[in-house]
Structure formats: C-alpha cells, structure tokens
Amino acid sequence: MLKEKSTSTVKKCKDTLSLIMNKAVADDIISKNYVSLSDSITVVTTKRVPYTTGEVTTLLKESDGWFKVFLYLVFSTGLRTGEAIGLMWDDIDFENGFIDLKRSITKGRVTEKNGNCSIDEFIKNDFKIKVFNNTNKTKNHTRPIPLDNTTRDILLQYYKKRTQDNWIFISSKTNSCFADSTTVNKYYWKPLLNKTKIEDKDLYTSRHTYISIMKNNGADDAWLKSIGGWTQSSRMLNDVYFTHESNERDTALANNFFYNLDKVKAE
C-alpha cells in the first residue's frame, strides 16, 4: 500500500483498522489485535515548491474576469481552494477589510463549523446547515481573514458587477457555486498555465505560496497559523507549507507584493 499511497493515508488506514480490531477483541470475536503489533508508520511530509513572486505576477496579469479575482484572493489570503469556492458576499466586510470565513466546499458538499450537507440541501435550507454532523476535526474553515487594499478594491469592483447576491464565484453551467475545484482546475487554471508557460504545481500551491511570501517577509508564526486555520501547536506551517526564500531578487519583489503589483516585472 505504501507504494501507491502517501504515508499519511496508510497510517490513517492502519489506525482505523486497529480501532476495528480493538472492538473485535472487546467483543470476544478475536483474541488479539495483530494490527497493533505491526511496524509503526512514520508520516513523511513533502513540501510543495511555491510559485515565485514573478510567476504570481504573471498569473495575475494574464488572467481575467472572475478568475482574476479568484486568483487575487487565494494568492493574497492563503485561502484553501474549497474555502474560496464557498465564499458568499455576506462573508465580506468591505468597510473593515476582512473575510468572515464560514465554510468550504469539496466534492459537492458544504462544510461549516458544526456540520456538512450537499450544496442543494444548503441552498434549499436558505443557505444554512440544519444537521450538526461535522466529522472534520483537522481543518478550521471558520476564521477571520484580512484583505489587503488591492485585493479588497478588486473584490469591490467585482461586487458592483455581481449577477446575484449569494455566491461570489459562479459556474456558468449551473448559475450556482462550483461543486469542486476540479472544474476550476480543468477549465481555468490549466489553460492559464499553458498560456503563460508556467509549471503546473496545482492551484492549491497558491496557499503555500502565500505562506512562504509572508513568512519570508517577517510575518509572525502565530499570526500565520491563525490566518491559515491551524492550531498554535501545529507543525504544518513549517513542516509542510513554508519554503525559505533564498533568491534575493524574489525576496525583494515579495516586499509589499500585493500593494505594489503594478511595479513588479512579470516573468
């Protein structure tokens, strides 16, 4: 299994199987939990290589329409792709400049703090989750996210041209939110990469890029963990997300990056 799956996935499978075996032992179905006697699995984390500031500049300048707004948001806030897809206009506080993040959308399901349901159920229930059934214990999709002035202004202009008052990013096929990042990747992200000749490190790498840019420019770890949705004891920030910027040119470009985008030379 380790040849085909990540160490994290294999460990989760082993832990789940061990719980089942423990229950079987307690019910006298088997005499011993042999899974617990197997070799331990060490989780190996691999850091993604973030996009350079020059690459981000090119992607932002070469994109257009709603997808340009989407990219500004994910690159300047560190939002997970599903969190960006799930944004609604009521989540944006333009006056104070922040996002009141409340949900994420993945594989056609809306997840909030206390529960999850299908997109259709969410809309039918007046954009609320009625059943508290949340099993997500690792990702915090409820937190305030500050907006820099440039991204806020771009979002405000997009708001003035909105075609509905609910979802921010709307699929032209359904006139509703995107059900998953798959469509965004296939029809918007990959064509943009082909156009710009930039390597495909996948759209989720925008989150890693944000963390690396911010930390390389002195952002506090505690603040970044809060913005990223991790607990203060989490090692995810440094073990998985942060990549030290050793290129002096890119470090210089990163300073006040989103405030001075027009001055940055695209690559």
Describe this structure in words.
There is one protein chain. With 267 residues, this protein is mostly helical. It is 43% helix and 7% strand. It has eleven helices and six strands. The strands form two sheets. A three-stranded antiparallel beta sheet has the order 1-2-6, with no helix packed on it. Strand 4 (109-111) and strand 5 (116-118) form a beta hairpin. The radius of gyration is 21 Å and the shape is globular.
Task: Please outline the helices and strands.
Elements: H1 7-26, H2 53-62, H3 65-77, H4 81-85, E1 92-93, E2 98-101, E3 104-106, E4 109-111, E5 116-118, H5 119-124, E6 143-146, H6 149-160, H7 181-196, H8 205-216, H9 221-228, H10 236-241, H11 248-254
Key descriptive features of the protein:
267 residues; mainly alpha; 3-stranded antiparallel sheet; 11 helices; 6 strands; DNA binding
Explain briefly what this protein structure is.
With about 270 residues, this protein is mainly alpha-helical. The protein contains 11 helices and 6 strands. The two termini are about 40 Å apart.
Decide which structural class fits the backbone: mainly alpha
Helicity level: 40-55%
User: Strands of the biggest beta sheet: in what spatial order?
Assistant: 1-2-6
Question: pLDDT under 50 segments (min length 5)?
Answer: 249-255
**Averaged pLDDT, please?**
85
- The N- and C-terminal alpha carbons lie at a distance of 41 Å
Percentage of β-strand residues? 5-15%
Radius of gyration: 21 Å
Q: Given the C-alpha coordinates, what overall shape results?
A: globular
| Main sheet makeup | 3 strands, antiparallel
